[in-house]
Amino acid sequence: MQREQPLQACAVSADPSDPLAQREHPEPPHSYRSPFERDRARVIHARSFRRLAGKTQVFTLGATTLPNTDGTGSAASGFSDHFRSRLTHTMEVAQIARTIAVTLGLEQNLVEALALVHDIGHPPFGHAGERALDEALRAHGLRFDHNLHALRIVEHFEQRYAGFRGLNLTLGVREGIIKHSNDYTAAEHPELAAYLLDRQPPLEAQIIDLADEIAYLTADLDDGMESGLLDVASMRAHLGLFERFYAPMAAEHAGAAEKLIFNEALKRMLNALAGDLIATTCTAAATQGIRSLEAVRAAPRRLAAFSPAVEAQRLEAKRYLYDHLYSSEKLERDHQMAADVIEALFTAWVAEPSLLPANYAARVEIEGAPRVVADYLAGMTDSFILAQFADWRSSRRL
């Protein structure tokens, strides 16, 4: 049966001659792959993408104990091989986003490329690591932004081609990297002027941030249960969207293990969020008479959204996770230790940049030690930065 694709007329074109399919360094068209299919493959084969496997999503990876800067250790929250890494989270976002794109009739290869690249700029230790890097750079009048760092990765840091630096991704993917979750202005970021900052991003980029929300809300509840920091009774009491599906599943599967009923409820919660996003976005486009990509770009606000009722439930779930998981004593202890590691290495290497690898040290005179050190730290996996910290701490004792 042919699936209706209500927003196909608003999709980005995969025609190699389309402006969004153009690359900074011209390349001949591929014989059987579209420009966005090639971009998806380039992201998957990038070293920075592979490193996502060793980066924290919520629960710190790579060690059951994180060291304090004074040389002592403190037990981290219970470690499990089943917790999401930044890579497995990215794969879940890609699966959700692709399903939404296919249903709406959008350019699914562009959507998949954007989903796969959307977290490539994250440093180790998750959001705690990002906050620590940003705070360290603020002292030098700079900032750390993982979207802007992702753009630098694909435009400069990745080196796979003899003729140019970076991955030479299409304009559509590079625009989506910086605009999928933030609205930058040319006044604040003149270096981004080429990315159509005065226009809305295509729907392919707009749905990435919301697919990300769906993925982490449901996955973090799952990992929180796995860790023992969350429990079903608390979720049922505080999360209306979860209880909406848990109660009927508990009645239908009376006697089943609580974890299996939890899984059934969580799957339906994910489906409800995705279905509402699809329906609400279609309604917004129809109400505003939007029938083309140009109309999407000229719209006064983004079209992709949840309905007001579901948005309220999403915010309720987000607040619950902050209050009961992200701010829990165990994770806060991990976050503080992670921040201490980043702060210690940042301070040491800014003071003595000759300790950096040669290819980074060579950039210091041009870009300044703080930015170069932040770039080096941001590319590390959890286990690599812990090894670097251990080496640095040992050198202080010599």
Per CATH, which architecture? Orthogonal Bundle
What's the Cα radius of gyration?
A: 22 Å
CATH superfamily: Hypothetical protein af1432
CATH class: Mainly Alpha
Q: What is the element string, with H for helices and E for strands? A: HHEEHHHHHHHHHHHHHHHH
Oligomeric state of the chains present here: single chain
Structural class: mainly alpha
> What is the CATH topology descriptor?
Hypothetical protein af1432
Q: How many independent structural domains? A: 1
Average residue pLDDT? 93
Give the CA-CA distance, first to last residue. Answer: 71 Å
> Can you give the helix content as a percent range?
55-70%
Shape: globular
Number of strands: 2
Helical run tally: 18
Uncertain residue ranges: 62-66, 73-77
User: Looking across the biggest beta sheet, what order are the strands in?
Assistant: 1-2
**Which percent band covers the strand fraction?**
under 5%
Q: Biggest β-sheet, characterized?
A: 2 strands, antiparallel
Describe the structure.
The chain has 398 residues and is mostly helical. The protein is 59% helix and 2% strand. Strands 1-2 form a two-stranded antiparallel ribbon. α1 runs parallel beside α4, α3 (86-104) packs across α11 and α14 (329-351) packs across α18 (382-397). It is globular. Residues 62-66 and 73-77 have low confidence and may be disordered.
